[in-house]
Amino acid sequence: VSPVYADVQFPDGRGGGKWHSVIVGGFREGGRGYYALDVTEPDNPQILWEIDHQWQNADSDIPYPPMNNDMAVSVGQETEKKAEGLYPFIRMGYSYPKAIFSYVIVDNEIVPVAVLPGGVSSGKPTTDCNSAGVCAPDVTGKAVFVVRLNPSSKDDLLVREFQFDTRISGTPSAFPAGFNSIARVIYVGDENGALH
């Protein structure tokens, strides 16, 4: 998908309140994820982040995804809950829809964010079952992620995840949508043509 571009102001302490030129793009069929680059200095672009469905916010010995192996059968729901925390983008699908830029208020601070639609499935069945017959539900693409453009740490990247029963295949739209506007509502369409 063609990357989207915006000039955004990073908060004090995360870029000194300075303006930055940022690009966010998706991998389309090449992978289930998105990336962000700071291209303020075009000859010296900086990677802000790169995420996919296997992105991990902490080091752990819990494998991805835990429902696909026999360990989940022996340790049960506790492992699944830990995995959901460790793999916050587990619902990320193939990134055909475009991301958008906006600002939101987080802890009384105006924060520049990217809104990432969940994306689409590969068209192949993605429900996996382990040898005991325990199957993981197919959640590919059934979410919208709001992420900081310039996080201070891995734990700081994900602002909010919204989960859905259907794949989110449309490009989001924020309201109000204007230069430097703070989003109050985000609209997005799903694979069935419904508006959320």
Could you characterize what this model shows?
By secondary structure, the protein is mainly beta. The protein is 8% helix and 31% strand. The protein has 2 helices and 10 strands; from the N terminus they run ββββααββββββ. The chain has a 4-stranded antiparallel sheet, with no helix packed on it. The protein has a 4-stranded antiparallel sheet with strand order 5-6-7-8, with no helix packed on it. A hairpin with a 7-residue loop joins strand 3 and strand 4. The relative contact order is 0.18. About 8% of the residues have low confidence.
What is the compact description of this entry?
This protein has 196 residues and is mainly beta. It has helices at residues 70-75, 77-86, and strands at 4-9, 19-26, 33-38, 46-52, 100-106, 109-117, 143-148, 158-163, 173-175, 185-187. 8% of the residues lie in helices and 31% in strands.
Number of strands: 10
Total of DSSP H or I helical runs spanning 4+ residues:
2
The helicity comes to under 10%
Q: What is the average per-residue confidence, as pLDDT, rounded to a whole number? A: 78
Detail the poorly predicted runs: 66-80
Output the strand order for the largest sheet: 1-2-3-4
Element pattern in H and E: EEEEHHEEEEEE
Rg calc: 17 Å
Taken as a percent bin, the fraction of beta residues is: 25-35%
Structural class: mainly beta
Largest sheet: 4 strands, antiparallel
How does the overall form come out from the CA principal axes? Answer: globular
Quaternary state of this entry equals single chain
Distance between the termini: 22 Å
